[in-house]
């Protein structure tokens, strides 16, 4: 269940950040509202996940997966380009998160 809560926090943050881009600097009310709700939900769910995960581990997974998801959404939805170094760097982020979850005893209290 803690991983589900953290996954929902990541999803909420991803939705909030996507809406932030769509809000065009908060000039479009609906995307701006979705941004606020998404970030509020993300931080609330992250706070629940912190009952199980150490803050550094939770934040690494939350921010790392958020970066990768937002970059993918930026590429697909907004037509933003990703060069090879960016893709490689995001690959390292995914590998780092996998190492934490597969090999670290710090992943949960």
Folded structure, characterized:
- This protein is mainly α and 109 residues long.
- It has one domain (2-103).
- It contains 4 helices and no strands.
- The chain has helices at 2-22, 29-49, 55-76, 84-103.
- α1 (2-22) packs antiparallel against α2 and α3 packs antiparallel against α4 (84-103).
Short overview:
This protein is mainly α and 109 residues long. The protein has helices at residues 2-22, 29-49, 55-76, 84-103.
The proportion of residues in beta strands is under 5%
Give me the count of strands.
0
N→C terminal distance:
14 Å
The helix fraction, in percent, is: over 70%
Please state the structural category: mainly alpha
Rounded radius of gyration (Å): 15 Å
Report the uncertain regions: none
Q: DSSP helix count?
A: 4
- How many domains would you count in the coordinates? 1
Q: Describe the biggest sheet?
A: none
Global mean pLDDT: 94
Q: How would you describe the shape?
A: flat
Instruction: Give me the strand/helix succession.
Output: HHHH
In terms of topology, how is this protein built?
Elements: H1 2-22, H2 29-49, H3 55-76, H4 84-103
Keywords:
single chain, 4 helices, 77% helix, 109 residues, mainly alpha
């Amino acid at each position: 269940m803690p991983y589900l809560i953290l996954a929902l926090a990541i999803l909420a943050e991803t939705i909030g950040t996507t809406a932030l881009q769509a809000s065009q600097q908060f000039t479009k009310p609906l995307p701006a509202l979705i941004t606020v709700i998404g970030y509020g939900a993300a931080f609330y769910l992250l706070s629940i996940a912190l009952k199980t995960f150490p803050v550094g581990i939770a934040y690494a997974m939350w921010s790392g997966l958020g970066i990768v998801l937002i970059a993918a959404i930026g590429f697909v939805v907004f037509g933003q380009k990703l060069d090879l170094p960016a893709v490689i760097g995001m690959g390292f982020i995914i590998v780092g998160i996998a190492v934490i979850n597969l090999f670290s005893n710090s992943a949960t209290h």
